[in-house]
Specification:
Belongs to the Lgt family. The protein is mostly helical. The chain has two domains: 289 residues, no CATH class; 80 residues, no CATH class. It contains 16 helices and six strands.
């Protein structure tokens, strides 16, 4: 496995280049890039069809930088410099434990002050370039795709918070025992928590920019399926614990690679399993028994589902129908994967189920209801 990008580069090219980048984190970033691309393409397509429309906004131009803006830019610069300079001066330590450095109070005061001054000065000079003797109001046209940067930022913030919240609910006993460690860790993220909270943030911002919720949901369906598939590549390559149950069964086909049927996730990033003989360093464990490599199954399935959604998007006219189909497909896919995936289970009224099974069931039911509603009211919703 490749817990860090350095491990991946060494495997591909045989070079040992110490980099402070976690493989899973890189693929999360790539998932946002993939989603950004798909969302933007859909927003432009729907605007061209006249489904979405640009809006007019009044902005004030020619204003100098205010004191509050300079202070905020300075604070942001201080945080960047405080951590960045310390990381560069302690690069070896940063490579070995980037998360620990970023989440700790350690930093470089001089670096923080330097970057605070640079960020404040940059904001001051940029505003001064366009300063007018008398600031004036003007109307600007904002196209739907131009709000994507804002959408991505808020989706990332609220998606991360939601993913952490739902993950801690799922593993409540462990959270009670190690609350600080789990809250500050970048690992332990639940997809559905990110989907619910990040999606809510996106809908709110979209509505403020004149995009109806159903249209925004339709825009997001294919993009979220693609982003999920890309993110799962990171889960598999890093071995982040999202694997399946033990698979002692023989391969059904001789031509099927072993790692596609039963895999021990050597060098996994979470340190699960038993020590690997002859391995030294931080990531030297592998599972005692081979498990179903469920992340790679989800990558393949969700890429196929994305291709299907992308293919039919021109044919779907009823607002809400695309997202309804996405909900059904996503729910069925995840429910089936949960049958062979390791997860914490709830026990209620004699029933045993995982959090993902419960949410995916609601997704399928909600998707069917939304699709029926969209088809019944397509003329009123358009």
């Amino acid at each position: 496995m490749f817990p860090t990008v350095s491990h991946f580069l060494e495997y591909l090219f045989g070079i040992n280049l110490p980099l402070p980048f976690n493989t899973f984190g890189v693929f999360v970033a790539l998932a946002f890039v993939a989603g950004y691309w798909a969302f933007t393409k859909e927003l432009k397509r729907k605007e061209a069809l006249g489904i979405l429309h640009p809006i007019k906004k009044t902005v004030v131009i020619g204003k100098p930088a205010t004191a509050s803006e300079l202070i905020m830019n300075g604070l942001f610069g201080f945080v960047i410099g405080y951590k960045l300079v310390y990381a560069l001066l302690n690069y070896k330590l940063f490579v070995n434990d980037a998360q620990g450095i970023l989440m700790s109070a350690k930093g470089n005061i001089i670096g923080g002050l330097l970057f605070a001054g640079l960020f404040a000065y940059w904001d001051y000079t940029e505003k001064n370039k366009h300063k007018l003797d008398k600031p004036k109001e003007t109307l600007v046209t904002v196209h739907p795709y131009q709000i994507m940067s804002n959408l991505v930022v808020w989706a990332a913030i609220w998606g991360f918070l939601g993913a952490k919240f739902f993950d801690n609910l799922e593993y409540w006993d462990d959270f009670i025992q190690h609350p600080i460690e789990r809250l500050l860790s970048f690992s332990g993220l639940t997809f559905y928590g990110g989907l619910i909270c990040g999606g809510a943030a996106v809908l709110i911002i979209a509505k403020r920019n004149g995009i109806k919720p159903l249209h925004m949901l339709d825009v997001g369906g294919p993009g979220m399926m693609l982003a999920y598939a890309v993110g799962r590549i990171g889960c598999h390559l890093a071995g982040d614990g999202d694997w399946g149950i033990v698979n002692p069964n023989p391969k059904p086909f001789s031509w099927l690679p072993d790692w596609l049927w039963s895999y021990k996730y050597p060098n996994n990033v979470v340190g699960e399993g038993i020590p690997i003989p002859g391995c030294s360093g931080k990531f030297c464990n592998e599972l005692a028994q081979g498990v179903y490599p469920t992340p790679i199954y989800e990558v393949v399935i969700c890429l196929i589902l994305f291709a299907f959604l992308w293919k039919i998007r021109d044919k779907i006219k009823a607002p809400g129908l695309m997202f309804g189909i996405y909900m059904i497909l996503n729910g069925i896919e995840r429910f089936c994967i949960e049958l062979i995936r390791v997860n914490s289970k709830y026990h209620v009224f004699g029933l045993s189920f995982t959090q993902a099974e419960m949410i995916s069931t609601f997704l399928v039911i909600g998707g069917i209801a939304l699709s029926a509603y969209a088809l019944r009211n397509k003329n009123q919703l358009a």
